[in-house]
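Usage

Read records sequentially. Each one opens with the input sequence:
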Amino acid sequence: MLLEFGTSLYVADGPCVSFYGFPYPTRMALARLSDGSVWVWSPVKLTAELEKEVQAIGLVRHIVSPNKIHHLFLKEWAEHWPEARLYAPPGLSSKKPDLRFHGELEDEPDSAWAKDIDQVVFRGSLALEEVVFFHRPSRTAIICDLIQRHSESEMSGWKGMLMKLDGLVGEHGSTPREWRASFLRRSPARAAREKVIEWNAEQLLIAHGECSRSNASEIIEDALSWI
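and closes with the structure output:
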């Protein structure tokens, strides 16, 4: 079900998926751009109900993946909306040669959505680089795996304990420690972090865990202080 998260911004939760044996909830964002077209971030599994709700908002023209591990449902969305342009984050086009990408996401937004959405790439990791977005009309930072704030009540057993030790649970959740270690060059990531903080976002929309309707800039600064 699509829910309004802010001005011209919507969110929908999808099913849990397995990531190295750990259950991960999925979440997508959708923005209606100034020209009336629809921009889709990290799409979840497409259902008949979700398809109907998306159609009611507008025509899907742009589909983006924030990092190279968020690709499970790109193909079905691209096939359902063949007129849409598909954009890859660093590393995904070579990982998924079966997908036809129209471009790779950079530090500057594509002209098609630059009026409504800004972006920056967190570079410097040997393992995974992520594109972070800022939806201007709703003043919302959209972050995928860099900030995870899983519900403490849902973290049980040894897997839950590992998630807590990894710093991914609760309001002070952050970035997986093993991913942090892969940023051998921190200066590009620091520059990206500064740009995100300069956005002075009011809201935070994340893929895994609790989003926030306020104090987003402070949450981001705290969660990414390790950089």
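Summary fields computed downstream for this record:
- Helices lie at 48-57, 74-80, 92-95, 157-165, 177-181, 187-198, 216-223.
- The chain has one domain: 3-99+113-223.
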